[in-house]
Structures
1.
Amino acid sequence: MKALWKGTLTVALLSIPVKLYTAVRKRPLEFHLLHRSCNTPLKYERYCPSCRREIPWEEVVRGYEYEKNKFIPLEEEELEAVFPKINRTIEILSFVRFEEVDVLYLDHPYYLAPQEGAEEAYVVLQKAMARTGKAALVRFALREKEHLGLIRPYRHILVLHTLHYAQEIIPPDFIQLPGQLHLDPRVLTMAEELVELYSASPKPEEWVDRSAQALLELIQRKISGGEVEKAPVQEARRVINLMEALEKSLARKGRRKKEERMAA
């Protein structure tokens, strides 16, 4: 895989030449808009309703809407002047415990690899972070934008996650819950038992995008001329009280565990 970025990871006087690789490859199913009668893909034009003509790219400029229908144009030179200078350094600001960073802030993951000749320093830092249970809060520039990031040990390597800025996180203040709830201790105990019964180690290899799988099957059936089957409509579940729901859930999980033991 080709590295998308090369630079230096620095902390104090330690500098480690590193390479950055994307760790996630999203392959969404993309649809085109077609003319129903002839299946021709539709085209979109850059049309100016004021000048009543199509606009070529050399006449296009970015603009910011500061009031309703009021725009301020921004030239590329002006944007470049305020963007942070692109450098090739990942600066470690501090070391933190990974669990201290709320997962809500984690964004895109990248693999961080050593450049040739920097393997020893890279492994020393990776092992030191793994043994101390620490992650590194970093600042770096990528694709003409400054980012905050978090580097953490992952297996035998280091992974860098870009972080959302605080102002990008929407506070959950709009979710209102009743101030005083008098919970039945028996209900809470049964809920805890249910959590324990359904606890298991995560198995990422079993996480499958069922929506994409169903769409691919639909597309394959249409290509081969097969009929499109309608998904069965699930009946709405009867509303039962909380205690009854917990009791039935615990009983059902208990039966399953017993069947699994007998099968083993």
Note: The mean pLDDT is 87.
2.
Amino acid sequence: MAIYSVSDITIKDADAYAEYMERAAPLVEKFGGRYLVRGGRVTPGEGDWTPNRVVILEFPDEESMMAFRNSPEYAPVGDIRHRAAETRSFRVEGV
């Protein structure tokens, strides 16, 4: 079953975040994932949530997503994201 990572990102260092995006994309693909949303204009809907930058990733299954997140290749790239941005995220299974 497909699994999705939904993130609300507040960028603190645009240059470092640009490096993160460049380095993360090939790793997402290597582990079977793909970007469904990567930035773009956000129009708030109901409630009081106004996300900053939205990123939605799709992986074929949770195992693939976790292999990506826990891979030695991603560890230094993830460190860049942690320094460059504040992220709130969750995973959700698809149908």
Note: The first helix runs from residue 14 to 30.
3.
Amino acid sequence: MPTALLLAPLFLLFELWQLVICERYVGIRQIERNGDPRSLGPNEGVAFGWTASLVFYWTWMLVLLLQSQGRVHGVCLLAVSLLGYGLRRSCGLKWLLVVLTFEGAVRIGLLFSLCVYVWRRL
């Protein structure tokens, strides 16, 4: 069992945290008051932790491509992330929360599937 696969539960928790942060900064309350999420940004510590986690997460997804086990999950995670990024760049603020939530839910499903796969292989 490659050790990179054992990090899947960590990234599952990260995705859940990311959905909470997303709701806080781009949530329904912000949309109702026409708040711009760029002006409400998180404090420096949260921003650093989020950015560092994203870099580590993308590196992990690329490492999954090099593994014999979990490669399909890595390809799917990368595809969903890139497709979600493209959709987020092209939609307005009112649809941003919908796209982020759907993208996060799909990635959580993929990570949960990978966690079950790893659990059964242990």
Note: The first helix runs from residue 8 to 26.
4.
Amino acid sequence: MTDRPGGQPTATLDDVDRRILAELRADGRLSIRALAERVAISRANAYSRVERLTRDRVITGFRAVVDPAASGLSTSAYVTLTVRQNSWRALRAELETIPEVAHMALLGGEFDAILLVRAADNAALRTVVLERLQAIPGVLGTRTFLIFEDAENP
């Protein structure tokens, strides 16, 4: 193992581990038996490898991928934020309270953060951006980029 930035250990992965991860990314609901068959290893080996990858935090969880439009969130946008320096921790805590924020990331470059916002419609998106995001202390500015088509949900 080597260290990640911040001193966290990084697991050493071999080709079998990478194939396991690829199969689980494609279908996180695979049984150990089906996973073992697809990767051409024994069930015991597949089980122990998945356990190790989970213990080493290479696999951090399993989730359902939901079509936003089918679940009532037909409007999506990337919203970039320009924020006051040294306010990321407080900002992040505030953003976590907004249910329409599906993903957030701290950036280096022209913008300080980017959010994936999923809302019921344009009016709901407007409310999130103009009333929720711009009201957060430390947010100096926003830019909104409407998503017409999502590669994960065409």
Note: Strands lie at 2-3, 9-10, 75-83, 101-106, 113-119, 139-147.
